[in-house]
């Protein structure tokens, strides 16, 4: 009997021990399962966030557009036709701001102006008749707003221009009646005051970036100009991003300068996928 009890007690202890280990095993198993499932849940949550962010980025990309306005001043010039051919090859809309007194200088310039005017890729705009030359220095020119206004109108009549878009000579100023794009510097202030007083609807078209002699000569400067534009576009949160670039006809006198311009246009196309537009397509100008 004792033997049996002892045996039973031993058996009971063994059972308890087994049960104890089984209990621990269940706890470990349950904890591991819990850990794994919680971990999975976190991964799933992370995946959801990633998808959400990607979708937002995608939507943002689809939602924004970049418009580039290539504007060429001070023509017609000896280099204008070569420049025009290069722009035709690159198939980019361009705006030419023309000086009337330049055309009076030779019949050749007259024919250059006609060729530019007739090409469907280009539009011509007012850059005043005298370009402030006949009035001496730029500062003196802007002292007499009535004269500046007469100079603008004279060019409009001489070139038979229907639109009211002018780029002022030697100064970067903006004037649109129905837009926040209105910036007057010291030179243009008197003129704008005068134009307001006569209720003139004339729009002044400034610029955001300038292509200079450096870009015409050095490819590294073209890269630099492009990155300045690219940087601005990255910082700009607007849905529609508009950038006006000022260039001059006379800066494209040789093949290497034209190659640099084509390279610049290829950088813009490849990296920003912009629409090239004319000055009269600028938001708020009409
Ligand atoms: Zn000019």
Describe it:
The protein has about 290 residues and is of the alpha/beta class. About 55% of the residues lie in helices and about 15% in strands. The protein contains 10 helices and 8 strands. It has helices spanning about 1-65, 80-90, 100-105, 105-120, 140, 145-160, 185-195, 215, 220-235, 255-270; strands at about 65-75, 95-100, 120-125, 165, 205, 210, 240-250, 275. Strands 1, 2, 3, 6, 7 and 8 form a 6-stranded parallel sheet that branches. The protein has a two-stranded parallel sheet with strand order 4-5.
Put the structure in a nutshell.
This protein has ten helices and eight strands. It has helices spanning 2-63, 80-90, 100-104, 107-118, 138-141, 145-158, 186-197, 213-217, 219-235, 255-272, and strands at 65-75, 94-98, 122-126, 165-166, 203-204, 209-210, 240-248, 275-276. Strands 1, 2, 3, 6, 7 and 8 form a six-stranded parallel sheet that branches. The protein has a two-stranded parallel sheet with strand order 4-5.
Count of helical stretches: 10
Supply the number of structural domains.
2
* Radius of gyration, taken over Cα atoms and rounded to an integer in Å: 35 Å
Main sheet overview:
6 strands, parallel
Task: Write a concise keyword list for the protein shown above.
binds zinc ion, alpha/beta, two-stranded parallel sheet, 13% strand, 2 domains, 6-stranded parallel beta sheet, globular, TIM Barrel, 10 helices, 286 residues
């Amino acid at each position: 009997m004792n033997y049996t009890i002892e045996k039973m007690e031993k058996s009971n202890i063994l059972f308890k021990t087994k049960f104890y280990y089984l209990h621990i095993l269940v706890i470990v198993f349950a904890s591991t399962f819990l850990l794994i499932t919680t971990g999975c849940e976190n991964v799933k949550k992370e995946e959801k966030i990633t998808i959400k962010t990607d979708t937002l980025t995608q939507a943002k990309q689809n939602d924004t557009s970049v418009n580039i306005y290539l504007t060429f001043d001070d023509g017609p010039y000896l280099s204008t036709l070569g420049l025009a051919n290069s722009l035709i090859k690159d198939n980019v809309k361009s705006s030419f701001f023309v000086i009337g007194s330049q055309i009076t200088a030779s019949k050749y310039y007259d024919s250059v102006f006609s060729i530019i005017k007739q090409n469907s890729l280009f539009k011509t705009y007012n850059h005043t008749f005298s370009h402030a030359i006949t009035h001496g220095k730029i500062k003196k020119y802007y002292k007499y707003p009535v004269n500046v206004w007469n100079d603008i109108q004279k060019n409009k009549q001489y070139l038979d221009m229907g639109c009211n878009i002018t780029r002022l000579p030697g100064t970067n100023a903006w004037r649109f009646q129905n837009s926040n794009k209105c910036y007057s510097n010291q030179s243009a202030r008197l003129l704008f005051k005068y134009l307001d007083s006569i209720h003139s609807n004339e729009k002044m078209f400034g610029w955001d970036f300038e292509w200079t002699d450096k870009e015409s000569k050095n490819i590294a400067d073209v890269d630099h100009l492009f990155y300045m534009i690219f940087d601005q576009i990255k910082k700009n949160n607007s849905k529609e991003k508009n950038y006006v670039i000022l260039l001059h006809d006379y800066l494209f006198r040789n093949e290497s300068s034209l190659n640099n311009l084509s390279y610049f246009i290829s950088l813009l196309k490849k990296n920003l996928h912009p629409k090239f537009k004319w000055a009269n397509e600028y938001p708020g100008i009409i």
